[in-house]
Amino acid sequence: MASKSEQRAEYLLRLGDDRLVLGHRLSEWCGHAPILEEDIALANIALDLVGQATLLLGRAGTVEGKGRDADALAYLREAVEFRNALLVELPKGDFALTIVRQLFFGVFVLLQAEALQKSTDRDLAGIAAKGVKESRYHVRHSADWVVKLGAGTEESHARTQRGVDDLWRYTGELFLADDVDRAVAAESFGVDPSTLESAWQATVRDVLSRAGLTIPATTYMQRGGREGRHTEHLGHMLAEMQIVARSHPGASW
Amino acid sequence: MVSAGASSRDEIFAILDEVKDPEVPVLSVVELGIVRDVAVDGSAVTVTITPTYSGCPAMRVIEEEIRAALEARGLSPVRLETVFAPAWTTEWMSADAKRKLAAYGIAPPGRAREESLVSLTRAPVVERVPCPYCGSRDTEVRSEFGSTACKSIAYCRTCAQPFEAFKAI
Questions:
Q1: Which member of A53, A145, B20, B22 has the greatest number of CB atoms within 10 A?
Q2: Among B146, B147, B145, B126, which Cα is nearest to B137's?
Q3: Of A48, A107, A207, which is closest to B149 when you measure between CB atoms?
């Protein structure tokens, strides 16, 4: 049985890894977005997510008490040690897929951060409160785009629908609660993700229906990220993300 | 020159009011609400700060500049403490600070709203930020994400001038 601090650290890693991995994926758009404003917007959102990740991983390191800071946790862990949901590690795809993922993840993060503002951990509550303000901008941005693309041209509609079809089976994992989630929720340190699902479903389904997009009939859901079982994509992403830190141990600039 | 060991809280705030945000050089870190509190004990100073955005890259520079400004006045040791709650809001910006922003060419923030999830995904933002150049309200926000995390990109239809607007957050 894991100790209280182990459970808390594990929970904080999940929060931090979700944001770090997606933040890095989003940063891959820098210089490649369809219009300049989007290049800037996606880079800004990536910056917010990586910033939140830095704070959350820093807190995870403190709670863990093994002397690892945010950098050590970001750059010196293997893929099997990452605790992010599979949704955020998938390759960025086209702009439509990226935007659909931003909607799926953004709504989840906003609901999660709103709940975490009441955490008994003062630092976590404060990090969440700041995140709520940032997430509001992110959700407005992605919802706006999903409607614009879904209700746009035949091409944009088809691509956005493909994004929904490809990503839907990765959304269930966001709401799966295990012993760690239940334990931290019971002591009001964290929030049980399953309690966020109905609000998420209502919001996302509403945006998709206004965009003229349909949810795939399949109810099969992928899982594994929270236990360190990842897709092959995470390893490749980490190799790129970690190479400088691993090639020059302890370097600073 | 503030003599070491004889500084009041007000004097420290006055020194910090000379430290400008590198990304918004017309406003000081005090005017922006980044400095939340100051505690003085002899020549030792503790400055409590809060980041504007979680990933704001200017924060590290701001920390160094706060430290340098205080040490230049003989204050030491300088300790910086970061707090996250309450979360930074543009509501802390004074009317005077907003006037300075507008004069600099950045539209000041409007009222920060606590929007619900439903209104975020439904109502498009139709906020008409007044143009800092001609004052017209016939403007549009082109992108809510600008050159820095705290600014959006707007355009004035009256004077045909693109401009930056400080986000209300």
A1: A53
A2: B126
A3: A48
Using a CB-CB distance cutoff of 8 angstroms, which residues of chain A are in contact with residue B51?
51, 130
Is residue A215 a contact partner of residue A208, using CB atoms and an 8 Å limit? yes
pLDDT digits (tens, 9 = 90+) for A19-75: 999 999 999 999 998 889 999 999 999 999 999 999 999 999 999 999 999 999 999
Tokens representing residue A118 in the block = 């009441």
Q: What is the pTM of this model?
A: 0.93
3-state secondary structure (DSSP) of residue B32: coil
d(CA A46, CA A40): 10
In terms of DSSP bridges, do strands B162-166 and B106-107 run parallel, antiparallel, or are they unpaired?
parallel
Mind giving me the DSSP string for A95-136?
A: HHHHHHHHHHHHHHHHHHHHHHTT-SSHHHHHHHHHHHHHHH
CA pair distance A145, A103, nearest whole angstrom: 9
Residues linked to residue B40 through DSSP beta bridges, in sequence order: B45
Give bridge partners of residue B140 from the DSSP assignment. B155
Helices (H) and strands (E) in chain B, counts: 4, 9
Q: CB-side exposure of A234: number of CA atoms within 13 Å?
A: 25
**Separation between Cα atoms, residue A140 and residue A146, nearest integer Å:** 10
Q: Are the Cβ atoms of A137 and B167 closer than 8 angstroms?
A: yes
Indicate if the pLDDT at residue B2 is higher than 60. Answer: no
Instruction: Please give the ipTM for the structure prediction.
Output: 0.86
Number of H helices, E strands in chain A: 9, 0
